[in-house]
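Chain A, query sequence.
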Amino acid sequence: MSDENGTPDTPAGSRDTRDVHGTQDTPADRPAAPGGPRPEPLRFFGTTWVEHDRGYTARRLGVAVGALAATAASCLVLRFAYEGLAIAETGSFVTLLVVVMFAVCSALAFRTTWDGFAKRPDPDRQASLRGLLAIGFVGSLAAYFFRALIEAPGEKLHRAEYETARKQHEQRSERRTGNPSKKRRRR
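Chain A, predicted structure.
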């Protein structure tokens, strides 16, 4: 902050790259060139997926263990629901129907979540599948677990988009070198 008027020392439009401890961010948090694209943060990973730094491996391990624990807890909850159906003596048809419903919804949720890591999902389709994904939550958690074993969930998609944006920015900035007002005109 400036002592005279209380305005920040950084110019307008730029961001202060220091964190709460006063240390600088890593190069992954800053754009490649002034005004260039910035990587999109991932849930639980921030921008550590760009350079695989600042505890990326530990975060991946933590996400995988957390997703596996949540999957196991979810299966336990479903087991209690199954036992509730058995105690209520609803009949074998209703019990079979509920088990098949959860199995199909979990399989569809797994596939939808897994595909969402590779390409951007259609928002309208996601909205229409929201109920199905809620019922098949075990499949979504399992997909998150298996993807965390390979990479940060969504890293491949974000990396491809970030690299494309960086290349496009570099191509645009290479074409605009120099001051166009000082360019000589041919006569």
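The CA atoms of residues 48 and 55 lie 8 Å apart. The chain is about 60% helix and 0% strand.
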